Amino acid sequence: MSGIDHREFVLALESLNERGIAYFVSYDGRRGDKAFGKLLPSYLELSRIELLAGRSSQSTLLGRAEMTYESLYLSPALVQRRALPADLRNHAIPMQPHCVPEANALYA
């Protein structure tokens, strides 16, 4: 995450929260025991969902089988507007593989 000043980023998110702006952001993640980026501070009151992004291609190249997870943060305004159920907050949700329809598939 080079180029992003964590403190400045947090201040920008604070400003968005103070203005009641709905947003979501993917900022940090992990692979195996290695974390990437800092968690965003709890005082921002963001809802964090950890998404299973899939097998790490870097680890595969190194002969390891590690999974990659990414954090998706939802702003308080977004959660309030969309009424995200409490059981989905701070929860890991596996991403579904992208499904491509067959070339000759017919649709009604």
Q: What's a quick, concise take on this entry?
A:
This protein has 108 residues and is of the alpha+beta class. 23% of the residues lie in helices and 30% in strands.
Describe the structure.
The chain has 108 residues and is of the alpha+beta class. Helices cover 23% and strands 30% of the residues. It has three helices and five strands, in the order αβββαβαβ. The chain has a five-stranded mixed beta sheet with strand order 2-1-4-3-5. The longest helix has 13 residues, at 6-18. It is elongated and about 45 Å long.
Distance between the termini: 46 Å
Count of discrete alpha- or pi-helical segments spanning 4 or more residues: 3
Class based on secondary structure composition and strand pairing: alpha+beta
**How is the largest sheet built, in terms of strand order?**
2-1-4-3-5
Radius of gyration (Å)? 17 Å
Q: From N to C, what is the helix and strand string? A: HEEEHEHE
Give helix % range.
Answer: 10-25%
Q: Beta-strand percentage?
A: 25-35%
- Number of E-state strands: 5
Shape: elongated
Main beta sheet: 5 strands, mixed
Integer average pLDDT: 75
Unreliable spans are: 92-108
